[in-house]
Write a structure and sequence with these properties.
CATH topology of the largest domain: TIM Barrel
Helix content: 25-40%
Largest sheet: 10 strands, mixed
Structural class: alpha/beta
Oligomer: single chain
Number of helices: 12
CATH architecture of the largest domain: Alpha-Beta Barrel
Number of domains: 2
Shape: elongated
Strand order of the largest sheet: 3-4-5-6-9-10-11-12-13-14
CATH class of the largest domain: Alpha Beta
């Protein structure tokens, strides 16, 4: 059976026509799924009973089961979800002053092999389909609905387990489904895709005509360091990556966010800060410095607060637009891949 979460509005309209219905039936069903958020086709009260039976034979509205749920003192919620094939993925709800952001996974596992990342401890099993990514958002929206405060998912970051641009077509479909004004209506500028640096896909993405944000997981200021901690750099070294970033900025007319996890003694010196300034010239990029969520099974440790502040001040003094990311869920397994890795026994409880 097909999931109703896997259709764009236009596709659903065409699907209804193929079932000898008027195209407006697609609008009705789309509205029931995303605006009224029913969890049963039987609840679609303005659809005839006979056609609801047809829909139930062909389509499903099922959402993944929660294997494990963690709630932080700051309101952050992390769920480990079980998919139809018994694989599991993580998704996280983060509460900001400006709204509720969902961190979505795009793959089961990850093949990028970033040395500091818990996701990389488990190799990629498969790509997620668009509906499996939509289901993560809907599961968190269900959580918010149960709280009864009338809140909604307002922002999406495709920054969970997996490399989004290694699952390009499904991720683009997911974005278009979530962005549709007759559906979840999450604004393009409230959606961010984060890539570890697939330069060719960054160029493709720049031509999509979307106003969706782009973030680059950089985490190093020179090729030598990046080769050691992020194997993707051997395929797309910094000169190729920044060539693609500049082309993206030109084609999409959008500013790029540079994500930079500070690792003690690895990439957090003032020399590294100066190298980063040089890399960023001509990009109009914004830098987001990230305190590291430590994983006991690797050798990396978070930089001291004074080192983070010194790095920040050096960038600021050189005219770089920079912030230090607010931490969420420090008392739970907040880092990408940690909860799944514990379930699989790769890291300890």
């Amino acid at each position: 059976m097909k999931s109703l979460y896997d259709f764009t509005l236009k596709e659903l309209q065409d699907e209804m026509v193929s079932l000898n219905q008027k195209s407006f039936r697609g609008n009705q069903v789309f509205s029931w799924v995303y605006q009224k958020r029913v969890n049963s086709i039987d609840d679609m009260s303005d659809v005839s009973v006979s056609f609801r039976e047809v829909l139930k034979e062909k389509y499903t509205l099922s959402l993944p089961e929660i294997i494990r749920e963690q709630v932080s003192y700051d309101g952050t919620v992390k769920m480990l979800l079980e998919l139809e094939d018994k694989q599991s993925v993580e998704t996280v709800l983060m509460r900001y002053d400006y709204g509720n952001a969902i961190c979505v996974s795009s793959q089961v596992g990850c093949n990028m092999g970033c040395k500091f990342c818990a996701s990389g401890l488990l190799k990629k099993q498969r790509d997620l389909k668009a509906y499996e990514m939509v289901s993560q958002v809907m599961k968190m929206q269900e959580y918010l609905d149960k709280e009864g405060k009338g809140e909604r998912v307002s922002h999406i970051v495709i920054m969970g387990s997996g490399e989004p641009f290694d699952n390009y077509e499904n991720v683009m479909r997911f974005i278009r489904i979530c962005n549709d004004q007759k559906g979840l209506a999450i604004g393009a500028r409230h959606i961010t895709v984060s890539t570890s640096g697939l330069a060719n896909k960054i160029v493709d993405y720049s031509k999509e005509g979307l106003q969706v944000n782009l973030a680059i997981s950089l985490h190093a200021s020179n090729d030598e360091t990046r080769n050691k901690i992020m194997p993707i750099n051997k395929a797309y070294p910094l000169n190729k990556l920044f060539e693609a970033i500049r082309e993206y900025s030109k084609n999409a007319d959008r500013r790029v966010t540079i994500e930079y996890i500070l690792l003690k003694g690895i990439n957090d010196s003032l020399t590294n800060a100066d190298e980063l300034v040089e890399l960023l010239k001509g990009t109009f990029a914004y830098v987001n410095l990230i305190p590291y969520n430590e994983v006991k099974e690797n050798e990396f440790r978070r930089s001291e607060k004074k080192e983070v502040r010194a790095f920040y001040e050096r960038l600021k003094s050189k005219g770089v637009n920079v912030t230090i990311r607010k931490e969420f869920g420090t008392d739970i397994d907040a880092a990408c891949g940690q909860l799944r890795a514990k379930k699989e026994g790769v890291i300890s409880e």
